[in-house]
Design a protein that fits this description.
By secondary structure, the protein is mostly helical. It is built from 6 helices and no strands. Helices cover 78% and strands 0% of the residues. The longest helix has 20 residues. The chain is globular and about 35 Å long.
Length: 103
């Protein structure tokens, strides 16, 4: 019941709910574009979501995976370095970053 009430009230601009709704709309757009094979557009959407929330771990790994598939190792290293700075205790990122440096 409370969940229905929450979703029935549109978030106002500047509210935390508005920012989260905006963030996840952008992330969802990136996911759809990626599924359609429109990788560059998906990456731009994901990068836009990082401007809204620079602590979105999945987005860092999504961008790095997509750039890695395109053999853009310098960009991948930069993205993973930013992610490691944002999440210094995330072992998965340190492994990805170390792997990139070794290649």
């Amino acid at each position: 019941m409370l969940n229905n009430i929450f979703h029935s009230v549109p978030p106002s601009r500047g509210s935390v709910n508005f920012i989260w709704a905006q963030l996840y709309t952008v992330v969802d757009r990136g996911d759809v574009l990626r599924a359609l094979g429109r990788d560059e557009e998906a990456i731009r959407a994901y990068e836009e979501s990082l401007r809204l929330d620079p602590l979105h771990l999945d987005v860092y790994t999504d961008i790095s995976t997509m750039r890695f598939k395109k053999r853009n190792s310098q960009t991948v290293a930069t993205i993973l370095h930013q992610a490691v700075q944002a999440f210094p205790t995330c072992a998965k990122l340190h492994i990805y970053h170390a792997y990139q440096v070794a290649i």
